[in-house]
Amino acid sequence: MPLSLQREESRWLIRLEGQVTLSSAGELKQLLLEWLAAQKDLELDLQGVEDMDIPILQLLWAAAREAGVAGMRIAARASAAAAAAAGDAGFTQLPEFPFQE
């Protein structure tokens, strides 16, 4: 499974791994909506991503934008492949955090 979630008292961790494609978008959207409703900070682990589709990047961008409006923080780390996929699609930076390798 390319998505996993770990809920902690003060923050959530969402980990994406492997080929994160359109088939994972619905599940990711649901996790992000739950996270936004929980009003917790988010650690986003993209270090295991081998490739990402544009819909996944759009969801992450929208979540980061909403987090900024709500005053929540996102910390993220990305694999070189995830950063390259984001850059190729024009997503060099999400609203509240840069892609870091």
Question: Could you outline the blueprint of secondary structure elements for this entry?
Answer:
Blueprint: E1 3-7, E2 11-20, H1 22-38, E3 41-52, H2 54-70, E4 74-78, H3 80-88, E5 93-94, E6 97-98
Parallel strand pairs: 2-3, 3-4
Antiparallel strand pairs: 1-2, 5-6
Describe the structure.
The chain is an alpha/beta fold and 101 residues long. The protein has a single domain (3-98), classed as Transcription Regulator spoIIAA (2-Layer Sandwich), CATH 3.30.750. 43% of the residues lie in helices and 36% in strands. The chain is built from three helices and six strands. It has helices spanning 22-38, 54-70, 80-88, and strands spanning 3-7, 11-20, 41-52, 74-78, 93-94, 97-98. The protein has a four-stranded mixed beta sheet, covered by helices on one side. A two-stranded antiparallel sheet has the order 5-6. A hairpin with a 2-residue loop joins strand 5 and strand 6. Helix 1 runs parallel beside helix 2 (54-70). The longest helix has 17 residues, at 22-38. The mean pLDDT is 87.
Which value, in Å, is the CA radius of gyration? 12 Å
| Biggest sheet details | 4 strands, mixed
**Name of the CATH superfamily:** STAS domain
| Number of individual domains | 1
Provide a count of the helices: 3
| Secondary structure tally: strands | 6
How much of the sequence lies in strands comes to 35-45%
What's the helical proportion of residues?
A: 40-55%
Describe the global form.
globular
Uncertain residue segments: none
The top-level CATH class is Alpha Beta
Q: How are the strands ordered across the major sheet? A: 1-2-3-4
User: If classified by CATH, what would the architecture be?
Assistant: 2-Layer Sandwich
How is the CATH topology named? Transcription Regulator spoIIAA
**Overall mean pLDDT score?**
87
> Strand pairing plus helix content: what structural class?
alpha/beta
Separation, N- and C-terminal Cα atoms: 22 Å
